[in-house]
Design brief:
By secondary structure, the protein is of the alpha+beta class. Strand 5 and strand 6 form a beta hairpin. The radius of gyration is 17 Å and the shape is globular. 22% of the residues are buried. InterPro entries: Pyridox_Oxase_N, Split_barrel_FMN-bd.
Length: 152
């Protein structure tokens, strides 16, 4: 129905992704921040976090990212599928991930958020890594314009 597009157009933007995992009780989904680097999608996790527990038990997962701007008529869907690994926190990569969403200057980051939620020195911090086995893109940015794309 839609058209493929270069995934880099979405992967570099500070959008919210949805990480889908499986467990004996069925599928689960969680919103995540991500960093596309070295051919992999890196997502934050915690040793005690439910996504990390599920991926440790069953590494199969999917990540969906949608860039939607209703007023502009933009709708880009990116899907990544494969098996994820869970590794230790890598402070430099974690800082780059945070900078993507919070800006490049750490002095401008919300101290409350960094101290309580996004602690770079958190011993329980983990990085979830998905090197996708498959990538799917679908540009359906014609829902307002008809057959002409609102986005190139």
């Amino acid at each position: 129905m839609g058209e493929p597009f270069d995934p880099e157009a979405v992967l570099g933007r500070p959008l919210i992704a949805t990480l889908a995992t499986v467990c004996p009780e069925g599928p689960r989904a969680a919103p995540v921040w991500y960093l596309w680097e070295d051919g992999a999608l890196w997502m934050l996790g915690s040793a005690a976090g439910s996504s990390v527990r599920r991926l440790t038990a069953d590494p199969r997962c999917a990540v969906e990212i949608v860039d939607f701007d209703n007023a502009a008529g933009i709708l880009l869907h990116l899907g990544l599928r494969g098996e994820a690994t869970v590794g230790p926190m890598v402070p430099a990569r974690f800082r780059r991930l945070l900078a993507k969403y919070l800006g490049p200057d750490p002095s401008g980051w919300n101290p409350w958020f960094v101290d309580r939620i996004a602690r770079i020195d958190d011993p329980y911090g983990r990085l979830i890594c998905l090197r996708p086995a498959s990538v799917f893109t679908n540009n359906v940015s014609f829902f307002r314009t008809g057959p002409d794309f609102a986005w190139p």
